[in-house]
C-alpha cells in the first residue's frame, strides 16, 4: 500500500473549487443581483506544452494602471478598477447593468509558472495573460551516504 502525504487543507481547496464552479457555471444568474456582478470576472485557463494561458473578461477598463496581475505560490490574481465617468445623469438613468467598481479574482494554476517572461494584453474587453511554465521542478533527489 502506498503512503500518501497528509494535506489537511486539500479537502477545503476541493470544496472551494466546487462552490466556485457551482456559482459560475451551473447558475450564472446567481452571480448577479440587479444586474451587478459581484466584482468577480470570468476567467478561462488552459495550458499548452510551454505555457499557461488565462483569458479574463473585464470590459470597461480604460487604462493599464487600472489592472493588477499577481502570481504568487502558483495562484493567479487579477484585480483592478472599472471607472465609469458619468455618461448620463443618475436621475435620467432608466436601467444600469454595467459593472463599475473594484474587481478581483484569484485562481490556482494547473502548472508551475514563472513570472519572468509573463506577458499580458488587453483587447476588446478581454485580458489575456501568457505565463511560461517552469522547465524543471525545483525538486532533486538527495542521496544518503551510508557509513
UniProtKB/TrEMBL annotation:
Location of the SHSP domain: 34-147
Pfam hit, one: HSP20
Domain CS positions: 38-145
PANTHER family from the UniProt entry: HEAT-SHOCK PROTEIN 20 FAMILY MEMBER
Similarity comment text for this entry: Belongs to the small heat shock protein (HSP20) family.
Protein name as catalogued: Hsp20/alpha crystallin family protein
Organism: Paenactinomyces guangxiensis
Amino acid at each position: 500500500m502506498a503512503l500518501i502525504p497528509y494535506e489537511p487543507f486539500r479537502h477545503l481547496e476541493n470544496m472551494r473549487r466546487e462552490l466556485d464552479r457551482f456559482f459560475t457555471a451551473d447558475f450564472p444568474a446567481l452571480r448577479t443581483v440587479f444586474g451587478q456582478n459581484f466584482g468577480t470576472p470570468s476567467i478561462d485557463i488552459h495550458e499548452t506544452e510551454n505555457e499557461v494561458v488565462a483569458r479574463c473578461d473585464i470590459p470597461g477598463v480604460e487604462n493599464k494602471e487600472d489592472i493588477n496581475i499577481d502570481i504568487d505560490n502558483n495562484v493567479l490574481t487579477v484585480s483592478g478598477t472599472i471607472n465609469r465617468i458619468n455618461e448620463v445623469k443618475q436621475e435620467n438613468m432608466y436601467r444600469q447593468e454595467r459593472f463599475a467598481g473594484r474587481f478581483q479574482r484569484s485562481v490556482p494554476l494547473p502548472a508551475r509558472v514563472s513570472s519572468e517572461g509573463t506577458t499580458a494584453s488587453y483587447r476588446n474587453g478581454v485580458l489575456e495573460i501568457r505565463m511560461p511554465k517552469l522547465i524543471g521542478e525545483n525538486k532533486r533527489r538527495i542521496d544518503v551516504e551510508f557509513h
